[in-house]
Amino acid sequence: MDKFKTFTGVAAPLKITNIDTDMIIPKQYLKTIKRTGLGTGLFSELRFKEDGSENPDFVLNKAGWRNATILVAGDNFGCGSSREHAPWALKDFGFKVIISTSFADIFYNNCFQNGVLPAKVSAEDLPKLMDDAERGANATLTVDLEKQEIRGPDGGVVKFEIDQFRKQCLLEGLDDIGLTLVKADRIEGFEKQNAASRPWI
User: Per-domain residue ranges for the chain?
Assistant: First the structure.
């Protein structure tokens, strides 16, 4: 997993609360266990009409936000079922940061396992970031993980909350497997000692 230090990108405003994982990636896309290719299904019921054509009213189909890499969303993002396909789809589409006032616990943890930063901001600060995101490609946000800051195009700074252990894992580019591999020498030493002391196992 890539290390996350700072990231600058265009932010897309999604003024919807309680965005659940089925809205993020509908059930018909869950047949795969690959982490790639799911971006095509991201928000598909919002992005496309029934005939398969693009919905011109949806933010990600508008010129200023087609290449957005930061999402500013309403409260309780990622609620619903615990599908890991949701952060897979967001990452595959190109999103690196999701900003909201709150996240569902399982979705929140799944983001960290996939290199996506879920940044929790206050209810007072979210409208400021929504306003910045409304500018589309004319403005960018910079997210500084070490300082836990989001800097707007006009120099404004918003602080965000993050679990400190998860923060460190992102900074070092470590998922659960990576954390285990960091201790590979200790694990190997234990296995050798265990084999010597209990050769019958």
Answer: 6-173
Question: What global pTM score does this model have?
Answer: 0.86
Q: What is the pLDDT of residues 53-79, one digit of tens each?
A: 999 999 999 999 999 999 999 999 999
CB atoms within 10 A of CB 116: 21
Q: Is 75 within 8 Å of 103 (Cβ atoms)? A: no
Q: How many Cα neighbours within 13 Å face the side chain of 151?
A: 10
Length of the chain: 201
C-alpha distance from residue 148 to each of 49, 135, 152, 156, 178 (Å): 38, 23, 13, 14, 23
User: What does the block give as tokens for 189?
Assistant: 């030493």
CATH class, domain 6-173, is alpha beta
DSSP letter for each residue of 72-92:
EE-SSBTBSS--THHHHHHHH
Contact of 2 with 173, CB cutoff 8 Å:
yes
Task: Give dist(CA 42, CA 33) in Å, integer.
Answer: 16
Cβ pair 100, 155 in contact under 8 A: no
